[in-house]
Specification:
The protein is an all-alpha fold and about 100 residues long. It has helices spanning about 5-10, 15-25, 25-35, 40-55, 65-95.
Length: about 100
């Protein structure tokens, strides 16, 4: 659901979405997001999974995912995509020098 379903729900051209997300990143955010270790970044994602992805879902199996849940997740999805792009670029630039 979170790896593809909600991202596909955004339903935009991937290149246009990437350009939009990149345009919103400030130099301060970029510097902040590059701090820490890969383990720190993984734990950050884990905490978001606990609070945003799974926090408000019911105990039904499978839990119902309604449009309100999807809209609530949009800001977290956008932010995590922005961070992922910054962090991947940072790792590639650091390791390829």
């Amino acid at each position: 659901m979170w790896n593809t379903g909600l991202v596909q729900h955004i339903n935009r051209n991937p290149a246009a979405l990437a350009a939009e997300l990149e345009s919103r990143i400030t130099p301060q955010e970029k510097a902040e997001w590059q701090k820490g270790s890969i383990e720190d970044w993984v734990m950050e994602g884990h905490r978001l999974a606990q609070t945003v992805a799974y926090g408000d879902l019911s105990n039904e199996n499978p839990p119902p995912v309604n449009p309100a849940y999807e809209r609530q997740a949009d800001p977290a999805i956008d932010l995590q995509l922005e961070k992922a792009g910054v962090r991947l670029a940072y790792l590639l630039n650091t390791d390829l020098k």
